[in-house]
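Progress note, project year one: complex with zinc ion.
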Amino acid sequence: MSASRRTGWVFDERYLWHDTGTGAGPLPASLSPWIEPMDHVESPPSKRRLLNLLTVSGLLEQLHQVRPRPATEAQVEAVHTPELRRRIQAAAASGRGDAGDGASPFGAASYDIALLAAGGVVAAVDAVLDGEVDNAYALVRPPGHHASAETGWGFCLFNNVAIAARHARSRGLARVAILDWDVHHGSGTESIFAADPSVLTISLHQDGAYPTGSGPVSYVGEGAGLGANLNVPLPPGSGSGAYEHAMTEVVRPALARFRPDLLLVASGLDGNGGDPMARQLLSSEGFRMLARHARQVAEELCGGRLVLAHEGGYNPWIVPFCGLAIVEELSGVRTPVVDPYLAALEGYGQGLLPHQAAAVARAVAQVVGVPAG
Ligand code: ZN
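Model obtained:
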């Protein structure tokens, strides 16, 4: 069991100390007297169990530890308004706050932890650009991809992957691509780079699931950024057949056209077939397939420079196996771990169905508009 690639690993215990308080599912208990308080769905267990599985599998010791450091105010404000940064800072100082939608609560330490999450992805980018590692996975929390320039949203405070992309641009990279395979639309990332032709954003998501109606295939950016945003809305019930079709027919051709200097992935694992927050069917092998395509296309186009930033993923027993498969694929290490949930999820049916192929075909039609690098 030895690594064929140097894979960086970003984690900090404080990521799990981001306090989303009591709730049930996505709603804080404070929203209704009829919600019996339990854990908010964006909670530590799926992330902690992913770390623990990497540890017991032996994979963690094959990875190169990359130390996160807090994102600077300047790095945050290269993406977000100073008002948002200061509002979250002040709310945390008061003991509790909400990122902006009433469903994204946070605690006293969460401003500092959110800076450390964004800074963790920045550190992963630096490690890859400096040649310390070939690729990297940042298991950060809170997630980031729903946060826009002006507000947090959907459990996200600051947009980690967007801050890392702007950082990479500031280091002289001309073109950065962000592939978002979280099951929900990468709404904040799309809006941040909508008019920016130097950052290609591609989101694979469950059609219209969250934010409601967000991420139509028809929206391809605006102004100078026209063409540099692709949405691939997949029907609910999509498995690895539909996802792989989207990768081969849309994502890889779009990236080949754009020719990025770095590929970032907003790596939500909530497209798994047991997730409470969506209705897709991916298994750990589905995520291994996604990671293989990302690795291969990065090797073809940008010297293998690839950084994955953790986003959603809420099933605490399935998420660890999906994350393990991804990191195995990045590093080239195959651990002895056997996914005990694989057979059940494969049994849901993973083949490409005609209505899924039709949805992908609508996104294929937009690839020609991607600015050529
Ligand atoms: Zn999500």
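The first strand starts at residue 7 and ends at 10.
Residues 110-129 form the longest helix (20 residues).
No further modelling is planned for this target in the current period.
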